[in-house]
Amino acid sequence: MWRRARTPRVSSALVLLLLAQMLACDGERSVPGPELAATAPAAVERVARALEAVPDQCGGVAAESVAAGWIGGPMVVPGDGIERALPFSVTSAGWGVVVVQNGDGQGVGNATGATVVVGPASGGSGASITLNAGQTHAAGVVALYAQSVLKVRATGGGSARVSVASLGSVPCSLVDATVTRTTGGPNTVTRVFARPDGSALGVVVLIPAGGNGTKVDVELNGVAVASNMRGSDAASAKAVALGAGNTLTMRATGQPGGSVRALVLDADTTGPEVGMTAPADRAVLGTTTASVEGTRGSDVVGVDVNGQSASLRAGGYSAQVPLVAGAQAVTATAADYCGNRHRVCRSVASRAQAPTIVIEGVADGTVVRGPVVPSWSASDPYLVSSSATLNGQEFVNGSAVTAERPHELVVTATNAAGLSATQSIHFTIDDTAPEVGIQGVEDTHHYKVAVTPVVTVSDANPFSSTVTLNELVFASGTTITEQGEYALVANAVDLALNEGGAIARFVVDWTAPQIEIAGVVEGERRNSPATITFTATDLYLQSVTGTEGGSSIESGAVISGAGPHVIEVVASDRALNEAQASRSFYIDTQVPTVAIESPADGTKTTAGTVEMVVSASDDGPMGTVSVGATTLTKGGDGKYRGSVTLSEGTNVLEAVAFDAAGNSARASVSVVRDTTAPQVVIATPEEGTRLTALSVSVTGTVTDATAVTLTVNGAAVAVQGDGSFSATVSLSTGLNTIAAVATDAVGNSGQATRSVRANATAPVLTISEPADGTTTIAESILVRGTVTPGDASDEVAVTVDGASVGVSTQGEFQTYVTLAEGPKTLVVVATDGYGLKTERSLTVTRAIPADAGEAGPDAATPAGLDAGALPGPDAAAVAGPDAGAAAGPDASSAKPDTGVSQEAAPMLMVSAPSERAVLGSQSVGVSGQVQGGTLPVAVKVNGTSATVSGRYFSAALALAEGEHSLGIEVTDAQGRTASAQRNISVDRTAPDLAIDVPGTNPAAVTTSPFRIEGEVGDAHLGGVTVNGEPAFVMAGRFSASVALSAGDNAVVVEATDLAGNRQTVTQHLTIEAVAPTV
Questions:
Q1: H or E stretch including 12?
Q2: Which end of the chain has fewer CB atoms within 10 angstroms, the N or the C?
């Protein structure tokens, strides 16, 4: 039991409950609203005084605005002789009227003169209007441009006011009349109109149209405005004086067809006079309506105040304007006949409420512990004063109150609008705490039976008491019959929040501990020592002991002796509940025997699978027999059979037999699968080669997984250890096809062909004419003959004296050769497509006679022939190669001494698998390259021959799951060896994956993000993802936070190991609602 009066230790839940009860009875601590000490009648306006606290609200109110239609200006220019410019734009170019007002147009502030020019903004001259001294105003018509500029210079002090309007939209028009000339007597138009007000500035604009023969006279009040204006005249404008009543007369004579349009307008652009006499500027008003009054000029036709139409009276106006709370502008806008406006503005504030008073530090009607420090604040934007009394005496704000007695605090506040408010509270100071006791249970005790707690409370001024059992309301004297941990909390609070309480923490438990034994499973047979761990689970565990064969053991003990074993464990908790558990197992270290009966080692096949027959036995129960990933099936004869898939090339098939204890034995055979035809490549000769001999050396390579036989054009050829071959093939003249065909050990065959042409006979060249030694006087001589190729399908090219000569399809050719005086040796060369050549040469002489006799041929010899020589080939010259030069290598060519190694020792480059690789495939591929060494080379993997092609090797091993060491060895033709080793793991089992948070699937949850947790296990674990995102993994557990959407959420948890095996669990989480994201 405990009591505390000055420093409360009551639970937060109890305090909140108590405060809620008090507030429900007494209202909130801050005063919701003051009482008005005095309220002015609604019809009476309370104006306190102008205060700086009312901010300016009139900054954005324009003082003046002019009537619609004035597109340039008004521009007010002082009479200082300085020209000023104002650019302006119009929708479309045309004509406009310019009005110059002197001073205010009523004789005040006049300038002595002004000059106005309107022209294009881009430059150039424009039209000008002049205001002379003494004139109230002047006007003129000017051309307007899309981009115009208004330039004004005024002199003599005062000012000039200039405005521009388009003739198409003239503002403040008083009269718009047109007189048109027809036939007969004069055509007359008369208009009678009144002046808007005494400030009006009259302007008459005349716009002629039509023929030049029409004449128009215009008068205003009997004064001529224009005389004899013709239809072709330009538009004009004239300033006129307007009377209270006015008559415009227009008379047209002369030829019909012409007309003049007259516009009379009030050119006044000055806003009317207006003033505001009430309310005063910066006034604070105690009403929601302002009574606005002011003065106005005689030309004012209407006044509105803040959008409300005012009542007009002689020289003044008045209006009732609604106000909003706070500072605001009151604006009066006066308008004249033409729409010119003048504004006057006042900044005021409306405060129709009395100040707001808030008292803090103590609530009204409460009983509290002392000391109490009441304080107050008065809120009003226009506060004037505030004060307080405590129990009728003046009270200083924030002073401490300590006396234990009832108290009254009264606060009064007044604002600038004269409104006052008063707020009062009552409170009492008290310091005595209640006493609380608990019987029937003791703190920190454990009970195996039901208990009945009883709570007692004693206090002189109790307010409330609460008794909770595990934070739920508990009735004193109730018997507790359910197991669990309990916290019985009793609290009592009096009206001053003095607290007393008592706590009893106890446990009701009649459940014995739960025992778990790990390291072995019941009835297990194993081949290794067992590390036995045992634990007992109980919230209140007191002790746990273990024995093996009657001897005490600790958790973590290693049992290694062969034979049967029994583990016994006993556990008890603090309530003396007890539990027992036992585990039996057998340690077996004898390995089984295994032998592969079929297929035989070294089998070669084209089939994609091979049937395995394995015999295996053990002194105890057998486990599994497998080849790679294939588990064999035990038949009635006790042998194990199964079909195993083969990879292309050498397959090392390892049978692994396990007994029930996990002991294993292995046996392996090598099987070569070869379904690929040998690959034959002819390196020489190249396709389409032309040969000048009738035999050729054919070289190339043959590649295959097994030994091959090779024929070239039907003749057997030896294949070297590196796959290369060479053979000499006889050829016939013309086109020849060379075919190399290879057949492997299982009958697959492949071939390569080459097409070549052969010819060993040079062309036969016969010269028909001229004969060798011919003498002629001609300037040229005919050379002709025939040529025959050794290959009948070949073509021959002929040159005579170095120049190419055409050859007919019959082999005939002829050409003329120009001769100079004296002897000349003619050389004729025939070359076939193989490059074989036949050459003939002969001598001819051109002789020019010296006698003066008649020119002509020698009578004894026909022209062009030497009588001593017959045409034909030189009998001693036979085309063809030198018989003493046979094609082929020099017989003395040096060869390497076979007793001396010309190459480096072999070295293994293993490309697959990589060291420490974790693989999950059906078979493990081993491949690589032999660098250096003398071909052929032989490669073995774990003692089994691999497939070798040149310097590349490969093998496929069907391995059981587990750790493996691969030994790779190469031996070259000289017996030199090299070796390499790869340590790998074969893992075809998916990881173990279980979700334990939440404990059910599906599960309903209340929070998002939700943290999902579970267990994961694998010897080669790669990682865990939750909805595709990596999870945190440590010590065999994973966790991740998942953002949820309202409704059902399917959360996908996936574990992956390094071999690519996957285990997936989908957890469904349901949440009713999710808080929005801010």
A1: helix 12-26
A2: C
